[in-house]
Amino acid sequence: MTFRELYGREPDGRWAAPGRVNLIGEHVDYAQGLCLPFAIAERTVVEVAARDDDRLRLRSLAEDGAWEGALADVGPGSPGGWAGYVAGVLWALRRAGHRVGGIDLLVTDTVPLGAGLSSSAALECSAALAVDELFGLGLGGSIAGRRTLAAACVSAENDVVGAATGGMDQAAALLATAGHALLLDTRDGTARAVPFAPAADGLVVLVIDTRVRHRLADGQYGKRRAAVEKAAAALGMPSLRGATLDEIRTLAADLMPRARHIVTEIARVRETVMLLDAGRLREIGPLLDASHASLAHDYEVSSAELDLACTAAREAGALGARMTGGGFGGSAIALVPVERVAALSDAVRAAFADAGFRAPHIRGEEPSAGAARVS
């Protein structure tokens, strides 16, 4: 099905936004922490045409559930499903005072869904960039403007879809540059490129998609965020960004492990950035391993499949491995010497088969550029 077949006209253009892999700094973006994502080659592509009214007609070749309605009909909980990520962006931009109207939109390609690679943010950001250009908002051409678009995408996910995510994924999709990771400070919104080119060091970042689909709006993500906010309030702090290990030891038993993950993960990001800035990429493996252990035990967002992927990868020669993304399924990453990729991939697949799990999808990723118009 083509855009013309659906809407009876050609699109005004095509826009694409990447998924992301978070190298380290998981579940800290809503705690005013530090994250280190990078954009990947897989992209969500939207074809869009502006309308002269306020109606939205939204279709996807990858997802069921087309939606059509007025922009005035968009709000918390409406529309449901994938369409909420798109319609929510227009709603958020209009609420922020930007003049936007209706669109016809078709999603033609997508970042792998439910794999922990932020397909939702890729959809939001591709739509946001399209709307920015079609309605002359003038935001997509500057870093500051792209941050404004990212904020609208976060609002769409938080307020319309109802997923209590932070802003890391949207920032990565809109601000990333090839050959670098993005050090994102979610307390003040600043970001800088950090050298990260695994191929130059004879390495590959393997993404191991467990094929266990996760959903951020299913409540578990929100429960973790609520616990972090409750811990900060108990300490009399606006966030856990400045908390110390000694301080979090005073927390209630149900909050202390969650807070410990936040504090130690932020410290791991700082150490990883220090090593990358110094050209010591091969030394970050133990930090990836420690991140996974913290996510599995203190934050309890891993799964049997993610744990097995990391364990099997390490045993087969990975320098380090960890789950990436929101957890409860999705993907793990492993930092692997090029010469070990084939054997390691075979070992992970064999481990999954022995455990009775579905065969994982395994692919290498290189840091890629952020969202852009493609035609």
How are the elements arranged and paired?
Blueprint: H1 3-7, E1 13-24, E2 34-50, E3 55-60, E4 67-70, H2 83-95, E5 103-109, H3 119-134, H4 143-161, H5 168-175, E6 180-185, E7 191-195, E8 203-209, H6 220-234, H7 245-248, H8 256-277, H9 285-297, H10 304-315, E9 320-324, E10 331-337, H11 341-355, E11 361-365, E12 372-373
Parallel strand pairs: 3-5
Antiparallel strand pairs: 1-2, 1-12, 2-5, 2-6, 3-4, 6-7, 8-10, 8-11, 9-10
Organism: Pseudonocardia aurantiaca
Keywords: ATP-binding, Carbohydrate metabolism, Galactose metabolism, Kinase, Nucleotide-binding, Transferase
Protein name: Galactokinase
Short description:
Pfam families: GalKase_gal_bdg, GHMP_kinases_C, GHMP_kinases_N. Its EC number is 2.7.1.6. The protein has 11 helices and 12 strands.
Question: Mind explaining what this structure looks like?
Answer:
Strand 9 and strand 10 (331-337) form a beta hairpin. The chain has helices at 3-7, 83-95, 119-134, 143-161, 168-175, 220-234, 245-248, 256-277, 285-297, 304-315, 341-355; strands spanning 13-24, 34-50, 55-60, 67-70, 103-109, 180-185, 191-195, 203-209, 320-324, 331-337, 361-365, 372-373. With 375 residues, it is of the alpha+beta class. The mean pLDDT is 95. Strands 1, 2, 3, 4, 5, 6, 7 and 12 form an eight-stranded mixed sheet that branches. The protein has a four-stranded antiparallel sheet with strand order 9-10-8-11. It is built from eleven helices and twelve strands. It is globular and about 55 Å long. It has two domains: 3-193 and 369-373, Ribosomal Protein S5, domain 2 (2-Layer Sandwich), CATH 3.30.230; 198-365, GHMP kinase, C-terminal domain (Alpha-Beta Plaits), CATH 3.30.70.890.
